[in-house]
Design brief:
Blueprint lengths: L17 E10 L12 E12 L2 E10 L13 E13 L2 E5 L3 E4 L8 E15 L2 E14 L7 E9 L4
Antiparallel strand pairs: 1-2, 2-3, 3-4, 4-5, 4-6, 5-7, 6-7, 7-8, 8-9
Length: 162
């Protein structure tokens, strides 16, 4: 997945409120250098609901190829990222946000990557900068041949409160 450019949608929500966003866009070209490929059209949807100490939601993205003629690599990729976050207070939270992917152009039996897992985060202030620090562990219950069986993520998120 390192060949795809990162893209995110930020949504602010208050307790007991919900938010959603839908966006059509073009994924930047995959090829670098003098021979650039065409961009990839994409659809994205994000839903967020905050209720008491819980934040629930998900992000869905589907990338399609514009053209597969002329030897350009195919891209037909679905990503799903449901998330559940429980805030304990004093900056501590437990969460799960597995990044599930389906490569519709992969060989049979190699389309899906399905992780399950959990993480722990701490929101704190370092040098007057609010940030969230976390560690997450995921086990891939399904994955393409040759993929990793486990994931360990260390996360640093800089926060910019209003």
């Amino acid at each position: 997945m390192g060949q795809y450019d990162a893209y995110s949608i930020g949504i602010a929500c208050r307790e007991f409120s919900g938010a959603w966003a839908r966006r059509s866009r073009s994924q930047p070209p995959r090829r670098r250098g003098s021979r650039r490929g065409r961009g990839q059209p994409a659809r994205q949807l994000v839903l967020v609901k905050s209720t008491g100490p819980f934040v629930l939601g998900g992000l869905i993205t589907q990338l399609w190829p514009l053209s597969d003629a002329g030897g350009a690599p195919k891209t037909n990729l679905l990503t799903l990222q449901p998330f559940v976050n429980y805030n304990f207070g004093k900056g501590w939270a437990i969460s799960s946000a597995p990044l599930m992917t389906a490569n519709w152009d992969a060989a049979d039996g190699n389309e899906w990557t399905m992780p399950i897992g959990i993480g722990l985060t701490r929101t704190t202030v370092f040098n007057r900068r609010p940030m969230s620090l976390g560690v997450n562990y995921y086990y891939n219950v399904e994955g393409p041949d040759g993929s990793a069986a486990q994931q360990l993520r260390f996360v640093v998120t800089l926060l910019y409160p209003r």
